[in-house]
Amino acid sequence: MRRHLAGTDTEASLTQAVYRLIHQHPTWLVEDIAADAGVSHAEVEAALDPLERLGLLAPSATAPGGYSAIDPEAALSRLFAAEERQVTLHQQQIARTRESIRTIMSGFVRLRAEERGVVEIETLRSGSQVNAFIDDAVSMVQSHESTMHPGGIPPVEVMDDMLLRDQEVIGRGIEVRTLYARHVAEVPHMAEYLAEITRLGMDVRISAHLPLRMLIFDEGLALLPIDPQDSSRGAFAIRGTELVRSLQTFFDFCWHDAAPLDRGGSGAAVDVPLTAQEHLIIRMLAAGVKDETIARQLGVSARTLSRTISGLLDSLGVQTRFQAALKIAEMGILEQAASVG
Fold it and tell me: Is 175 helix (H, G, I), strand (E, B) or coil?
């Protein structure tokens, strides 16, 4: 007679019933569980396997039945810990694989191409393809970068992104030389951008005329426009040491014929008179405090704070907050702000 399993003939119900009886009777034997549950010896044995897989039973040399019951909470905790270890190992394996890919792509593929003298030219038809290529090339550049910009003036809105990328490249120790056409360098926000990247450590020169846009990364990668008169038509991505070396020689010729950037004097900091409120705003912005919090602490509306910050940018002679941060660091205004009040 199946006293404990009446009306429950599924395998899951049998497994749960066997576990409950084992948990209640630490000194259990298979024949005792079979008799108590009203099932066969073989059915109890079959129920033990899924319980061990779930971690609800653990082998025990001291238990009469050969297994000790584990509390469900403890079994869950162990499963979560095992899952976390597996995820960590998987993430580490992915990181190792990606690092191997980068190593092969940046070193061995280029080395093999050099041995074969292979030149590969990929056509990039859309602006998004060109931008993605440049982002990838910048992230993988190893030692030096040479860029030539004959025209096409970026809008003010992208200046912060450009400066952040330049700062990251310079921070990695990459040697960067960049050529700009004089009429581009004379646009106010471009003049300020060029002054900032020069201060960061980039080598900038100006030329009266440049023939085409060109970007060269290390020894074997370059980007040239499909149409030198209209860069919006796309670009050629060129891979191959011999051809890129020739393009580098052409760049070097233009470089030596250009003039160093004129930063307008010694570049000494100009005294910028700021109010106590502006000093306080500078301190909070530097600490990463959000605009809404700053407005509340000052007791002003968000619109008023926005106008105040715009006036502060004007006082500093910059157009974006990133440029303001660079200017503040250069002029030591943050130290002045810390001493106010």
Answer: strand
